[in-house]
Amino acid sequence: MGQGIAQVALLAGHRVLLHDALPGRAGAAADGVGGRLDRLVAKGRLSAADHKAALDRLLPVESAADLADSALVVEAVVEDLAVKQQLLAELEAVVGDGCLLATNTSSLSVTAVAGGLRVPGRLVGLHFFNPAPLLPLVEVVAGAASDPAAVTAAFDTAAAWGKTPVRCTDTPGFLVNRIARPFYAEALRVYEERAADPATIDALLSESGGFAMGPFALMDLIGQDVNEAVTRSVWEAFFRDPKFTPSLAQRRLVESGRLGRKSGRGWFPYEHGPGAAEPAPEPHTAAPAAAPEHVTVRGDLGSARVLTELAEAAGIEVRREAGAAAGRGTLVLPGGTSLHLADGRLPGDPAIQFDLALDYRTAVRVGIAPSAGVHAGAVAEATGLFQAMGKKVSVVRDVPGMVVARTVALLVDLAMDAVAKEVASGHDVDTAMRLGVNYPLGPLEWGERLSAAYVRDLLDGLHAWYPTGRYAPCTELRRRAAAAEGVISS
Questions:
Q1: Taking Cα atoms as reference points, which of 409, 345, 337, 403 lies closest to residue 370?
Q2: Strand partners of residue 353
Q3: How do 330-332 and 294-298 pair as beta strands?
Q4: Catalytic machinery residues
Q5: Fewer Cβ in 10 A, N or C end of the chain?
Q6: pLDDT in tens, 301-339
Q7: What is the 3-state secondary structure (H, E, C) of the chain?
Q8: Is the Cβ–Cβ distance between 342 and 401 less than 8 Å?
């Protein structure tokens, strides 16, 4: 990470000094940066002249005293509070009072890191994402004592380096690691309830939800130990708030040494070599079924109303029931079974839920969940309906909120809560989640598409089934839903 940040600063035209506590490590790091620049030249992304100029601005130093004239020092040492505090105290003793100090911590409190400084206002968080030269997002974190001028200087510097900075206050997990927890947690919860296997959950979130990678594959890529440590850190920092509770299933995976790609196996196998390879599991995909001749629309389907257009385009007659009562919108199959969008409730009568999609037009997979008492013929009709629209169908166990819907609802809830508590602006929250973890939409934008009332009702339904506080809608979500319904003014 230190090498990556150095590369970013170098290519922005700055003179960069590299220091490491271990003798010889700074020189090795400078060689590493040089190798990165060599590869950019080979790929035609950096001219020979700019390459030479950048290397001329790079200097490894063996003593912290050599940093005395620096205007900005960024530390990227081990994630240990005592180590960071000691290093920064040493730096403060040699640099001028006008020098800006920055920590690249991803999990520690910026306020705590600054706690041992003589001038704590000079320290801010500059949280780069790995690899720093490639990923555009930088979280600029203001600790409780950070001087506003220091925060602005850090923000402007990151922007001048070609990054997209976002401002946030010093909160556990900052923006991305705080708001992203449900993406992993709900997948693990659905798996623990044995509603679906990891491959199917991943397929639904990527092929229906529009996420670039499913949570189980992403946890394997990050490292199960690293991902669980972040979850546990945020949970502890929030005084064990149930919204951030870690997963026992993931804990067992870490204890078994199945850490993901780096260990050769996590949720999925990654072994290499003769006789060692194991095929990756495939998501559950229903066998082809005949499409129904017609469906009846009852009520408003909300964000799923485009399904009627897709059904008609597939040659299925769509009948609209006049004078349907307000409430849950449904598609009624020829046999009388109702299909409805997952909304956090389980149906009282035999019915089939279908999961949320980012865009039903472009989604290549849809999840459905029949309730108890739904006969196989009705499941086949529902399967055939979505297959006629060009979708793969995954049949999962009937759980409240299914997979995509409950995940998105909790992302929206945590995002709204962060904005209400002035952790960051709404624009910065959405920017952070799109650029930091490559979400297809910012959670606040997604919430607007779905409506605050839908998200609130879905979470209320989940909270009724799981009354632990994990799914209780935040105050801001309730306020926005009520305002949209005209119950209170905005």
A1: 337
A2: 340, 369
A3: antiparallel
A4: 106, 127, 139, 177
A5: C
A6: 999 999 999 999 999 999 998 765 556 799 999 999 999
A7: CHHHHHHHHHHCCCCEEEECCCCCHHHHHHHHHHHHHHHHHHCCCCCHHHHHHHHHCEEEECCHHHHCCCCEEEECCCCCHHHHHHHHHHHHCCCCCCCEEEECCCCCCHHHHHHHCCCHHHEEEEEECCCCCCCCEEEEEECCCCCHHHHHHHHHHHHHCCCEEEEEECCCCCCHHHHCHHHHHHHHHHHHCCCCCHHHHHHHHHHCCCCCCCHHHHHHHHCHHHHHHHHHHHHHHCCCCHHHCCCHHHHHHHHCCCCEHHHCECCCECCCCCCCCCCCCCCCCCCCCCCCCEEEEECCCHHHCHHHHHHHHCCCEEEECCCCCCCCCEEECCCCCEEEECCCCCCCCCEEEECCCCCCCCCCEEEEEECCCCCHHHHHHHHHHHHHCCCEEEECCCCCCCCHHHHHHHHHHHHHHHHHCCCCCHHHHHHHHHHHCCCCCCHHHHHHHHCHHHHHHHHHHHHHHCCCCCCCCCHHHHHHHHHHCCCCCC
A8: yes
What's the pLDDT at 404? Answer: 98
Residues near 393 by beta carbon (within 8 Å), at least 6 away in sequence: 285, 286, 365, 366, 367, 368, 382, 383, 386, 387
Do residues 139 and 166 touch, judged by C-beta distance below 8 A? yes
Q: What is the pLDDT of residue 44?
A: 96
**How many other CB atoms are there within 10 angstroms of residue 271's CB atom?**
11
Residues of the chain where predicted confidence (pLDDT) is lower than 50: 489-490
Which residue's structure tokens are 């959670």? 443
Rounded distance, CA 414 to CA 316, Å? 40
Q: Tell which residue, 359, 350, 351, 353, has the closest CA to residue 304.
A: 359
